[in-house]
Amino acid sequence: MNTELLASLVGKMVKVNRGGPESRTGKVLYGGDDHFALLTEKEGVVYFNSSHVKSITQDLQSNVEEASEESMEFLKEDTLGALFTSLRNQQVIINRGGPEKLEGFLDNVNDDYVTLVLQDEVVRLATFHVKSISHNTNAKDEDSSESQESSNEQSSSQESNQEKSSSKKSKKRHRSALYLDEMEGAESGYSK
After folding, report:
1. What pLDDT score does 159 carry?
2. pLDDT tens-place string over residues 161-178
3. Considering just the CA atoms, what is the radius of gyration of the chain in Å?
4. φ, ψ (nearest 5 deg) of residue 26
5. Among 75-84, 103-112, 135-144, 164-173, whose mean pLDDT is lowest?
6. In the chain, what is the greatest distance between 2 CA atoms, to the nearest angstrom?
7. 3-state class of 38 per DSSP?
8. What does residue 167 show for φ and ψ, rounded to 5 degrees?
9. How far is residue 63's CA from residue 66's CA, in Å, rounded to a whole number?
């Protein structure tokens, strides 16, 4: 896709690619030399590598509320390499769908590859094979909700363990009390 075409589509509703895991619909926010920014309803701003875009379909009948581009927070970089550098040290999603989707921390960037740190892996992906990239805005929310769930599970398991422990202690007390009662009954000649 050339720069002039992308510039003519800024502010317009389009569908990127006709189908498949990288197909998205949204408003074009910016067109760089080799990439463009698309505002999607569900995923926010997604940056597409122009060399991997097969088609852009303009929706002529959509009535889009014109959102001011100044109010939208997105990166305006001339090149994809500069965009990668701007996203460095952030949680990102690369290649939005399909088996090539990666979510992690963008650690290093150079002309040949990007380094992404996943939970227990370090992935080096050739920059040419990056079809799309975006901020992973849900990462912090997921991390905080996961840690909240984890702490809730820990506290409920601790409570459960305490209940079991106190239940065992009370059973032991009951047994020992019965044993003492039986012993006292045996000493006094009383039997059940």
Report:
1. 53
2. 555 555 554 444 444 454
3. 30
4. 180, -170
5. 164-173
6. 107
7. strand
8. -65, -40
9. 9
